[in-house]
Design a protein that fits this description.
This protein is mostly helical and 371 residues long. It is built from 14 helices and seven strands. The strands form three sheets. The protein has a three-stranded antiparallel beta sheet, with no helix packed on it. Strands 1-2 form a two-stranded antiparallel sheet. The radius of gyration is 30 Å and the shape is elongated. It comes from Thermogemmatispora tikiterensis.
Length: 371
């Protein structure tokens, strides 16, 4: 029999062996594992047991509800079915790599596989800190690249067609704001009248809301400090919002006691939050009626940014409008728009230099004549 002494003072049996030589080999291996931190205290925990405990008791108290729901879906849909029965300390890099490859074969989005990697990396980092494993094997696995495919967007002409189509529709103000400001759907649905100054012509983005089955409406502050932002409202948007407010006051009067006062700009007939999936269905119907391509509601945000960049608006201004935490995020998403802008800028520079050259030549000719 071979034993090692743990940091707690307790002895852990390595095993029983037929010869002293076998016991010594096993003992050396166990001592090495102990030094590396790979000797587990207690039973050999499975990946499933560890990840479920990690999510519920380590991560959940410190993350947003929406992030918790996302992590839980990734764990139970993609990671635990494949790796859950494996003992935690016997998890190998090759098993992780095969999982990623299988998910790519299934057609899972690169961004989701990247999220799987980040989640596992964080979970195993915590496992190392707790001496559950000796090292984070995710350090040995190449992180999947989260590619950002070029999103379909509306051209300026198509955006105008959509705005014309929604005239007098119940979603007119919402879609006009989405196109003109690049606000996310969750930000629009959480917008309150107290966030808007119709006289001075600006609004404040402060929060976001989404509906999750089993949880209901989840309203939170924006993810980052930059997400909280002030946006200027142009006169056509202000007039549309005023008309929308007047119609809402009529609806409130008709609802009577059924009205739930939440000060929401966009709400149901009873004043409650709109469900985002309902808005998307209405939006897709409007696109079809306008003869426009079926693009995601979020792609209106991409359309706004792309149109502004094509008009020569500084990318820093676009970043602030969209509420990105750093300009690199804006560049990463919309960098494909910049080459065309670069060519146009150089053409402008060429025309400017040509004009200056002509002016200098004319000046020299004038000097010669005066002489």
């Amino acid at each position: 029999m071979a034993q090692v002494t743990l940091e707690t003072g307790k002895k852990k049996t390595v095993g029983y062996f037929r010869t002293r030589q076998e016991a010594q080999v096993a003992l050396r291996k166990a001592l090495n594992e102990l030094e590396q931190g790979t000797v587990l205290l207690g039973r050999d925990q499975s990946v499933r047991d560890y990840l479920e405990h990690w999510l519920e008791y380590i991560q959940k108290p410190s993350i947003r509800v929406t992030t918790y729901i996302l992590y839980r879906r990734i764990l139970h849909k993609h990671i635990i079915p494949a790796l859950g029965d494996i003992p935690l300390r016997r998890l190998k890099p090759e098993q992780i790599e095969r999982l990623y490859a299988a998910k790519r074969e299934e057609g899972l989005a690169a961004k989701t596989i990247s999220s799987m990697h980040s989640l596992l990396h964080t979970a195993l980092r915590d496992a190392v800190r707790r001496n559950k494993v000796g090292r984070n094997i995710l350090e040995m696995v190449k992180a999947p690249r989260a590619t950002s495919p070029e999103r379909p967007v509306l051209t300026p002409e198509q955006a105008v067609r959509l705005i014309r189509k929604v005239k007098e529709h119940s979603l007119e103000a919402l879609i006009l704001l989405a196109v003109m400001t690049g606000m996310r759907l969750g930000e629009l649905l959480a917008l309150r009248w107290q966030d808007i100054d119709l006289e001075r012509g600006h609004l404040q983005v402060r929060r976001t809301v989404s509906y999750k089955a089993g949880y209901g409406f989840i309203e939170t502050e924006t993810k980052t400090r930059k997400g909280k932002r002030s946006i200027v409202l142009l006169p056509p948007v202000i007039e549309t919002l005023k008309a929308h407010q007047a119609r809402q006051l009529e609806a409130r009067s008709k609802a009577g006691d059924r009205w739930k006062e939440m000060d929401l700009v966009f709400c149901t007939r009873n004043g409650n939050f709109l469900i985002d999936s309902f808005v998307r269905r209405q939006y897709y119907r409007l696109l079809e009626q306008a003869g426009l391509p079926r693009i995601h509601f979020h792609d209106l945000r991409h359309s706004t940014a792309t149109i502004l960049l094509a008009l020569g608006v500084n990318i820093k201004v676009v970043q602030e409008l969209l509420g990105h935490s750093h300009v690199n995020i804006t560049l990463g998403i919309y960098g494909h728009v910049l080459p065309g802008m670069q060519e146009e800028a150089l053409q402008r520079m060429g025309r400017l230099l040509a004009l200056e050259g002509e002016q200098e030549e004319q000046g020299e000719q004038g000097t010669e004549l005066s002489e």
